[in-house]
């Protein structure tokens, strides 16, 4: 019972429902060639090819999330857009090579 109370307090009204988080987490991100001054365009597919793809921007992500889940509050939509933006940033940043010292590479 105490755990239920703690969860309800910490979760709050702006927490994303689990199904929304799962779809954003499983979003497919494709890097497309763009203009030299604006950089590459990022095409996002949330929920397979039936839902279509869109070029990522905060406004377009907001529009897509509101259209797919109209019952979300403004705070939840904002959180969903931020989560998708973080997911895109994580997928597009270059991987840093691991510089581990060990007996094989220590020469």
The residue ranges in which pLDDT falls below 50 over 5 or more consecutive positions are none
Spatial strand order of the main sheet: 1-2-3
Rounded to the nearest angstrom, the distance between the terminal CA atoms is 59 Å
Order of helices and strands: HHEEEHH
Percentage of residues assigned to helices: 40-55%
> Radius of gyration over alpha carbons?
19 Å
> How many structural units, i.e. domains?
1
Largest sheet: 3 strands, antiparallel
β content, as a range? Answer: 5-15%
Mean pLDDT comes to: 81
Structural shape: extended
Helix and strand composition category: alpha+beta
Per DSSP, the total helix count is 4
The count of β-strands is 3
Please describe what this structure looks like.
By secondary structure, this protein is an alpha+beta fold. It has one domain. Helix content is 45%, strand content 12%. It contains four helices and three strands, in the order ααβββαα. A three-stranded antiparallel β-sheet has the order 1-2-3, with helices on one face. β2 and β3 form a beta hairpin. α3 packs across α4. The longest helix is centred in the C-terminal third of the chain and has 19 residues. The mean pLDDT is 81.
């Amino acid at each position: 019972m105490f755990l239920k109370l703690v969860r309800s307090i910490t979760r709050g009204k702006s927490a994303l429902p689990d199904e929304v988080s799962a779809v954003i987490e499983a979003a497919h991100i494709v890097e497309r060639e763009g203009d030299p001054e604006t950089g590459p365009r990022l095409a996002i597919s949330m929920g397979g090819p039936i839902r279509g793809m869109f070029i990522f921007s905060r406004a377009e992500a907001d529009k897509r999330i509101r259209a797919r889940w109209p019952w979300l509050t403004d705070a939840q939509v904002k959180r969903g857009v931020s989560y998708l933006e973080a997911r895109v940033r994580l997928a597009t940043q270059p991987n840093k090579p691991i510089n581990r010292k060990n007996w094989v590479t220590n020469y």
